[in-house]
Design brief:
- This protein has about 170 residues and is α/β, with parallel strands linked by helices.
- The chain has a single domain (about 5-170), classed as Rossmann fold, CATH 3.40.50.
- Helix content is about 45%, strand content about 15%.
- It has eight helices and seven strands.
- The protein has helices at about 25-40, 50, 65-75, 95-105, 125-130, 140-145, 150-160, 165-170; strands at about 5-10, 45-50, 80-85, 85, 90, 110-115, 135-140.
- The protein has a five-stranded parallel β-sheet, with helices on both faces. Strands 4-5 form a two-stranded antiparallel sheet.
């Protein structure tokens, strides 16, 4: 096992409260809880807006609070895990997750993007192309459900990539 790290886990919150329902999307919550459990069981410290906000069931924070908190999580983490599942045949809307991916790539920090590889073309070109400028590794959600430890391997794979090397290689 690698040394314990601080892992910031992001994913949909605002648009994960189902229309007409009083709760967070339970399938998405199960995914996020599974990611948190795998990371904690491996000894990593997990930061998560989902946990901080009790999946939207807690106190509703202000925009300034959310932005400051999540920016701090992004600045202080060793790796960012973005959970971007599909919903109704397209990627779940998650503006905040995409902003966090921007913060992380601007830092040259490691990211793991958990997505639906079979429908990769449904994701933004900026998400698809992020590995060309930042140390990003993709994990297919079906692969994660089959073997949750694959996430730990992806974090290790991202550690072996350097943003500076990526930018230099792409400029050639």
């Amino acid at each position: 096992m690698s040394a314990p790290q601080t892992v910031f886990v992001g994913g949909p919150i605002q648009y994960a409260r189902l229309p007409g329902a009083s709760h967070f999307d339970l399938r998405l919550r199960a995914l996020l809880d599974g990611v948190h459990d795998v990371l904690r069981d491996a000894g990593h410290e997990v930061t998560s807006a989902h946990v901080a906000e009790d999946y939207g069931d807690g106190v509703v924070p202000t925009p300034d609070h959310v932005t400051t908190r999540d920016f701090t999580f992004a600045r202080d983490c060793d790796v960012y895990v973005a959970c971007l599942p599909m919903s109704d045949g397209r990627p779940y809307r998650s503006d905040g997750t995409h902003i966090e991916l921007g913060w992380m790539s601007a830092r040259g920090a490691r990211c793991v993007i958990m997505w639906d590889r079979e429908h990769a073309d449904a994701y933004s070109f900026l998400v698809q192309g992020l590995p060309s400028v930042s140390p990003v590794v993709f994990v297919d959600l079906d692969d994660f459900f089959a073997d949750p430890a694959i996430l730990l391997g992806a974090i290790g794979d991202a550690a072996g990539r350097s943003a500076a090397d990526l930018v230099t290689a792409n400029a050639e």
